[in-house]
Amino acid sequence: MDGAATVDPMLAVTGLRYEVADRVLLDGVDLTVSAGQSAAVVGPSGSGKSTLLGCLLGLIRPSAGSVQVAGGDIVKMRRRALERHRSRHMGVVFQFGELLPELTPVENVALAALLGGSKAQRAYQRAEELLGELCVPYRGVPTGRLSGGERQRTAVARALINDPAVLLADEPTGALDAATRDSVTEVLFEVTRRHDCALVVVTHDAEVADRADRCWELKNATLVRRDLGGRS
Ligand SMILES: Nc1ncnc2c1ncn2[C@@H]1O[C@H](COP(=O)(O)OP(=O)(O)OP(=O)(O)O)[C@@H](O)[C@H]1O
């Protein structure tokens, strides 16, 4: 959908329901995130956080509810339209980066733009800019040779390359040591503000959850607001 930059909230989830086997994993889940804002989703293992993220990405189709991304309801979209919408308006950072280790960081980041339909010169130029902004060194060596933190910053650059309205992160610091975790956390929240994205981060990491504007716990299939040390 064009003109997404003017649509806010960038992400609006309403009445989401999903059941698997005989268990209801999501029931009446509502979540709204505006441009430049962040929401953390926490909860015990098995509570359904990955399932929720799958619904937000359009990889899992809920049995009820809507997921408005940049003004378009992805639940109602057919596969091709959904893939286009996702590539155009959503960026994802996974726990282990999910980058291609043989490609350079520039190639990994540019690839997402090329798949999104960008011209090669523009894709590579933008990839260089983003990697510079996120302080990824050695942009010409295979990504597999970078440190864990550098790889995650490359993954953040890749998530940003198509100027997404919505940024989703699944345990982005889960595989990092404490010092690296802090720098990746900083980058994630900083780019959310600078690039005016709506960020949803699923995390077990209290430090990450604490940085978000809002924190929600997935409990008994619904999202319950968690207090962040007195912040509202
Ligand atoms: N297709 C499926 N068939 C059967 N059970 C499923 C299916 N998908 C998810 N589940 C179950 O639903 C529950 C929620 O899974 P989910 O991966 O969303 O939890 P989670 O909160 O992300 O857990 P973790 O923090 O460990 O990653 C789990 O008990 C899982 O085994």
Automatic annotation (TrEMBL):
KW Secreted (keyword) present: no
Keywords in alphabetical order: ATP-binding, Nucleotide-binding, Transport
Pfam families xrefs: ABC_tran (PF00005)
Gene Ontology molecular function, alphabetical: ATP binding
Domain ABC transporter: 11-232
SUPFAM superfamilies membership: P-loop containing nucleoside triphosphate hydrolases
Domain of life: Bacteria
PANTHER family membership: IMPORT ATP-BINDING PROTEIN, LIPOPROTEIN-RELEASING SYSTEM ATP-BINDING PROTEIN LOLD
Recorded family membership: Belongs to the ABC transporter superfamily.
Name assigned to this protein: ABC transporter ATP-binding protein
Taxon lineage: Bacteria, Bacillati, Actinomycetota, Actinomycetes, Kitasatosporales
